[in-house]
Write a structure and sequence with these properties.
Layout (H helix, E strand, L loop, with lengths): L11 H11 L20 H11 L1 H11 L5 H7 L7 H10 L1 H33 L3 H22 L3 H5 L1
Helix pairs in contact: 1-2, 2-3, 5-6
């Protein structure tokens, strides 16, 4: 289940900085409002700006004041159901910070998988690649075989061999 949060507290300094980042004049914001309670078209910009300043606080506010998650999304987050593209979209809309965390984790998992595949491929190539000593032996064997074939073709087997 999504972690339960008490009503988050907002630091006035962060709210003012977030408003400035969002380009909102603080005089336009009621004193009892925060980014998730303000019913203004600019509230989303204020939320985004606040999220950039305090991601954990924003996540707590999204849980406390944001729209509730659907039962299907909560089941997917709990690992009881598969995460579908529709549920990912819902998560992105309702819990952007959690969505970004999941996307980052998936990216890290993919990079780790690529790294592991690359290491495996390097090991396979290393097994197939002859050592310098093996290359010298192969070259010597090849030279000896070529010389023997030339001697045989030119009828020099008895002359050189004796």
């Amino acid at each position: 289940m999504e972690r339960q949060v008490k009503d988050p507290t907002f630091e006035i300094g962060q709210l003012l900085r977030a408003a400035a980042i969002a380009g909102i004049d603080p005089k336009d914001i009621p004193s009892n409002a925060h980014p998730w309670s303000w019913s203004d078209d600019r509230a989303t910009s204020w939320q985004i700006a606040y999220r950039s300043l305090n991601p954990v606080g924003a996540q707590d506010a999204e849980i406390a004041y944001g729209r509730p998650l659907s039962l299907a999304l909560q089941a997917a987050l709990d690992g009881l159901e598969a995460m579908t593209p529709d549920l990912v979209h819902e998560l992105e809309l309702k819990r952007p910070h959690r969505h970004a965390e999941m996307r980052e984790a998936a990216l890290q998992d993919a990079l780790a998988g690529i790294e592991e595949s690359l290491a495996t491929e390097r090991a396979r190539r290393a097994e197939r690649t002859p050592t310098p000593e093996q290359l010298r032996q192969q070259q010597a064997a090849s030279r000896n075989a070529a010389a023997a074939q030339l001697r045989e073709q030119n009828g020099l087997i008895g002359v050189i061999g004796s």
